[in-house]
Write a structure and sequence with these properties.
The longest helix has 19 residues. The protein is built from 13 helices and no strands. The protein is an all-alpha fold. It is globular, with a radius of gyration of 22 Å.
Amino acid sequence: MSIKTINFFIICLYLVSCVSEKKGTNKYNYFANLIDSVEFAINVEKYEKATFLIHILLREDSTHIKTNELYAELLKNLGRYNESTAIYTKLVELNPQNAIWYYTQQSELNAKLGKKKVALSLANKVFQLSEDTFDYFFLKSNVHLYLKEYNSALNNLDSVLSINYSHFSNNEKKILLYQKTYVLLCSGDTISTCLFYNLNKEKIDSFLINISQGDRFDFCNESDNDKQN
């Protein structure tokens, strides 16, 4: 452990000792500041710091919703999927109005764990609660993608594209087109990937720029340039 990290932990311990002596607004500000620090640490992949801060927050209030949401996200990023799923189960009880999101996360996590029946059961639960065709088929596509069942993933995307495409927002259309291109790429079918990408290039590129991955399918353009040369 580096000196900087040790100093950071010492400062955090000092803050903990201070908070026990303060109530009301000061404690609220303390929580808000630490939560901001946790979010930043997760975003820059400083997971050791994030873990340390989350345990401080949980010691103060083990039922704090935002803290538990960040903890579930952190565990997911660390590849600790079973533990992350357990936190989302806790969150369903703490914050049932956001159950759709928690079940969605659990469905994808179980798919990553190879638990197909559980993952699909949770996806069905999401649909029962939301009745949202877009979210349902998109989630099922992700489940099959994580299970490396690429044909099933594509079939679910095609179901959305064929049933209700005209009713989706422009951003939802971009997401669907990108997702299908990405699934084709994961399947190893680069020819179909590039054919579909070039047919929908403008919308897909617009989405990629938004997620700072504008060069993901550049190899398709390079293939075209090679043919011309």
